[in-house]
Amino acid sequence: MIVYISRKNLSGQFSIFKIFSLLCENIKPSIYLEVPFKSSFFGIIGNLAYATILRFKYKSVLFHITGDIHYISLVMPRERTILTIHDLYGIRNQKGLKSLYFNLLWVYIPLMAVKHIFVPTSLIKRQLLFAIKKNRISKAIKIHVVCNPVLYV
Predict the structure, then answer these.
(1) Pick the CATH number of 2-145 from 3.30.200.20, 3.30.420.40, 2.40.128.20, 3.40.50.2000
(2) Domain ranges of the chain
(3) What is the pTM of this model?
């Protein structure tokens, strides 16, 4: 079984729910879940607690993390977790301490915590490979390019 975990759907923001809800309909058995909190300081702590509960509730499933909650990979089982990074927009537009914060939660921790990462383009793959080299991450990480489907709904 695959458990897809995504960020909380916020009004006015693009959600990848449409993409992964279609996957859930066509890949059985699978479940689509959203973390309960938006990614504020306390929301991150709450989402990490929620992900920890999911880890123990679903002991022998494959977890697929997507959306802007890459940091929950920290508490998920490395061998059974896949991360999809759709873009690096949030970290490219930050400066100073905010840049360090975003790099830590959205790139560095996820790169250390998972074995397989899916990205939609070779550009994002090159950017992640650069981040691996820059941060001297030595773990074996496989980055796979899988294009996002275009949905007409």
Answers:
(1) 3.40.50.2000
(2) 2-145
(3) 0.83
